[in-house]
Design the sequence.
């Protein structure tokens, strides 16, 4: 298993099942193991939790490993997406998505401020989709130097830009441990 520290371990002792969840990419990765005994299950849990704690962060492993299919071959969809999106905005880890290296606000931070300031004036900003080409154009414009958002921009385009950035992050902006805690609290 290609480990990074975004993984979390979920155990179902009654069924002797151990699941390792990684929120990487769009769908995430899940590995489920079935132990013969409870002792074996606990050994696996301890070993995996220890390995995850020592694993590199998602940010340091981004781009090092291609996305693989179940048969071990590289996904053509994944390689196509990687070659198409050579973006300085899309695909950034959460810790780098809000602030540029120089400390100035990044695209996502500016887009969120735009929605906060002007998005309430439009209906269904995050619910209604914008034209895909307009969203791509806005990313291109930003990368070409149009770094600020003006009040007359279409809120639906900016909302879809935000959704695209969040969807294309290499890992979930909410750590798996928090997701597990939220689901547990909900139940």
Sequence:
């Amino acid at each position: 298993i290609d480990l990074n520290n975004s993984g979390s371990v979920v155990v179902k002792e009654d069924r002797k099942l151990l699941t390792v969840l990684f929120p990487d990419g769009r769908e995430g990765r899940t590995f489920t193991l079935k132990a013969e005994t409870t002792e074996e299950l606990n050994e696996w849990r301890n070993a995996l939790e220890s390995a995850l704690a020592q694993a590199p962060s998602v940010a340091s492993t981004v781009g090092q490993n291609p996305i693989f299919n179940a048969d071990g071959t590289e996904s053509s969809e994944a390689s196509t997406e990687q070659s198409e999106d050579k973006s300085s905005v899309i695909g950034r880890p959460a810790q780098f998505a809000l602030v540029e290296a120089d400390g100035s606000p990044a695209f996502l931070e500016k887009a969120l401020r735009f929605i906060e300031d002007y998005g309430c004036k439009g209906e269904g900003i995050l619910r209604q989709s914008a034209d895909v080409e307009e969203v791509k154009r806005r990313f291109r414009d930003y990368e070409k130097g149009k770094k600020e958002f003006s009040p007359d921009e279409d809120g639906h385009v900016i909302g879809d830009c935000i959704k695209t950035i969040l969807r294309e992050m290499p890992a979930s902006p909410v750590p798996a441990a928090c997701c597990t805690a939220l689901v547990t609290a909900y139940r």
